[in-house]
Predict the structure.
Amino acid sequence: MDYRRTYVRDLFSMPPGSSTSAYGWVKTRRDSKGVSFVQLSDGSCFRDLQVVIEAGSIPEEQLKLLTTGACVRFDGEVVASPAAGQAVELKATGVEVFGPADPTHYPLQKKGASFEFLREIAHLRARGNTFGAVFRVRSQASFAIHKFFIDRGFHAIHTPIITASDCEGAGAMFAVTTLLETPPHEEPEAVLKARPYLQDFFEKPAYLTVSGQLEAETLALGMTNVYTFGPTFRAENSNSVRHLAEFWMIEPEMAFCDLDGNMNLAEEFLKEVIGFLLERCAEDLEFFNQRIEPELLTTLHHVVESPFERMTYSEAVKLLEASGESFEFPVSWGSDLQSEHERWLTEKKVGRPVILTDYPKEIKAFYMRLNDDDRTVRAMDVLAPRIGEIIGGSQREERLEVLERRIDELGLPKEAYWWYLDLRRFGSAPHAGFGLGFERLLMYVTGMKNIRDVIPYHRAPGQAEF
């Protein structure tokens, strides 16, 4: 057998009379008046292939093995289908059962199951309609993201998973250690008591990265436009539907770029990637529109076709304060906006995506460029209807003395950022970038309500199965 074979999606475009084989897993089987009908899926598309098995065409001992979950190959002829909703079906002339499945124990049954239960059998859930669609969209979205940046001359880079610096300066990082596995180094006891990490593998505190941004800046200030697309980790003790401990981030970084250019790229990015998915994943997105999120397609088309509104954080706060709405979280200048505020702006006030800029420096990271008012920074958040913030970014602080002052103000260990400060000492340049959580984007384009349902195997507090 070879990987180059006919997929189920290919059979639907074959003319009647074609001889072919179909590989996949049995979803259902029903018997009626000497004929058996099998719904076969290989995950290549949303639609199942109906296989018709006439009496006597397949040995009875093989027919008995064609139960839900069985992995098979059917040989046969493509014929016109009399059933509504499908142009062709496969008339079977032979079958090979690669792997039978005991129907009394197979956990994926036709009656369906809750998403909570399906997370417990995540190793099987891709065989169902919903998660097959989710992971096809995830695959196409990944391709669309790489295509977007490569088409614009960006260089794909790989930033470290293990780091000694905290990009966000907010903690919540997973420590990386081998101290439980390796013998201690030969160091005086007093030294090891004061600095126990000297015994460790890296001989300094090390963590799983929360972002590849800082390292991406180093490459942007030598290669102009770069992007990283990789896993990141946050040790936040949150069981919300919007947080994971392990997730994927898209982070472009651009030299000789200011906040306006950054906003332009972010808007182009969302429009092009969502437009690509509307075209390439039409069947899957139609399913989500019907079963998961009503008006999903309307919202996505609206994002692609509408110009994004741009306003400052201060302007947004004034609008929220004058709205007359009874928000759960009060609004005041200097406070971080909540999802309810962001959705009001995009859904009720403006009616399309909004990019907010110039946030108070106290609620943003140390690396964002300080404005002349010494109160706000050149930050931006892209807000989208139905979800709120979907992209966060900024123009970076390129002035050495200002960056050092911000690090000191926040009490961060300056020695950990020596290399980051060197970028400002030697050939500094204006630069900007943003970050986008891949799973957040997937929630938006599929309408799925829980972030754990758009990644094959979720990692959250107390949950690291598979």
Q: What stands out?
A: The mean pLDDT is 93.
